[in-house]
Amino acid sequence: MFLRKRINLRNTLAFRLTLWYAGVFTLSSCIAFLLFYMLITSWIRDRTDQELLSQVNRFSTLLVAEGFEAVKNDAVIEAQAAGIKKVFFRLLSLKGQVFSSSNISYWKDININETAIRELLQGSSHIFETITIPDHKDKVRILYAFLSPSIILQVGQAMESYSRFLDAFKGIFIITMTFLIILAAGVGWFMARRAVSGVEAITQTAQSISGGTLGKRVPVKERGDEIDQLAMTFNQMLDRIQTLVTEIKEMSDNIAHDLRSPITRIRGIAEVTLTDGKSMDEYENMAASTIEECDRLLDMINTMLMISKTESGVDKLSFERIDLANLVREACELFEPTAEDKSVTLSCDVPQKSHLVGDNRTIQRMLSNLLDNAIKYTPSGGTVSVSVSENDERNIVITVKDTGIGISPNDLPRIFDRFYRCDQSRTTLGIGLGLSLARAIARAHGGDITVTSLLNQGSIFTVTLPILKS
Ligand code: ADP
Known about the structure:
five-stranded mixed beta sheet; Beta-Lactamase; alpha+beta
C-alpha cells in the first residue's frame, strides 16, 4: 500500500516539476559557487604573486646596493622573521646549483625546476609554479627570477590564505547547498502543487460528472492563466454537453410522445372496428384512417432523417445555378389555393430573376415549410407577404412576413428546436419539425434563418442565402 502510494507520488507532475526545479536551482547555485571560488582563488594567487615579486625587487635592490653577502644574510633573516615554515629563499647559479639558502629543513622536498631555469635563460623575466608537497597542509607558490645576470632567486611561500579560504569555502558550500536544496525542493513543491491544483479540480469535476452530476462546473480563479483557460474551456464544453444531453432527452420525450399518439389512435380505431364494426364500410374506414396515421408517422420519421442527414452533411446536396425568384414564385402559386381557402391574402414580391448556387429540391422544401407555417398560423383576413431581394453582392434575402398569431419572447429562442411547438399552436396540425428542417437546409447552403415576432401581431422569418457556395 505504502509502496503503491510512493510510486504514485513519483509519477505525479508535481513531483517531476519539483525535481526539475530543485535540480535546475542546485545546478545554478553550484555554477555560482564555482565562479565565486575561481574568482577568490585567482585573487589570492595574484596577491601571493605580488608579494613574491616584491621580494625579488627588494633583493635586486639590496644586491646592487650592498652586495651578495648582504642578500644572503637578509634571505636568512627574512625567512626566520616570516617563519621558516612559511617562506624560503634559495640563490641559484645559472646551472641551477644552490649556493646559498635560508633554513630549508622544512622545504627539503622542493627541488629545483630545471624547466623554469631553462625558460628564464631563454628570456622569460620570471616563472611561477604551484606545487603540492606530500604531508604539507598548504600548497606552495614558487617564483624563479633573476637577481643579477648570474644569480637566480628561488623564493617560495606557503599558500596559507588559500588553504584557509578552501576550508571555509567547503564548510559554507556544504551548509549553504544543503539549505538551498531543501529550500528549492520546498518552493518547487509549493509552486508545482499550486500550478497543478487547477488540473486536479478539473479531474475531480470530471470524476464527479462521470458519477452523474452534469451540472457541476470547475471553479475559475479569474487569474487569466493557462489553468483558468483550461477550466473555462472545460466548463464551456460541459455547458455544450449539458445542452446536448437536455436536447436529446427532450427529443426522445417528444419522439415518444409524438409516436404514442398516432399509434394509440391506430390501436383505438382497430379496437373499435373489431368490437363494433360489422360492415365492410367500417373496415374500409379503419384502413383509410390507419393509412392516414401511418403517413403522418412516416412523414415525421422521414423529416427527422432528412434533418439529421442535412445537418451532418450525409445527404449530399446537388448544388447548381438556380433562379430563386422563380422558385419563390412557384411556391407562392402552390400555396395560393390554401391561402384562399383560409381567406388569407398571399402577396409575392420577387424580382424578375435572382440567381444563386443551391440545391433546388431542399430550397423548395424550406420555402414550403415557411409558407405553410405563415398561412397556418395566420387567422382569416390576415396577410402573408413573401419577398426576395439581394441585400448585397454576396447574399440573397427571402422574407416571409405574416400578420398571424405571433410567437412569445419565451418561445422565440426555441422554435427551431426539433419537436418544439408553442403552446398557442398545439391545436393546429403539425409535428414541430418544419423549422428545424428549414434551418438545417439554410445552414447547409452556408446561410441562416432568423425570426422576429410579436405575439398576436405577426412574425417575420428572414432567410439569408449566399449567392455563391462558399
Ligand atoms: P409545426 O409543425 O408545429 O408548424 P415548426 O417547426 O414548423 O412545427 O414550427 C415550430 C413552432 O413554431 C410551431 O409549432 C409554432 O408554434 C411556431 N411557429 C412557426 N411559424 C410560425 C408563424 N409563422 N407564426 C407563429 N408561430 C409560428
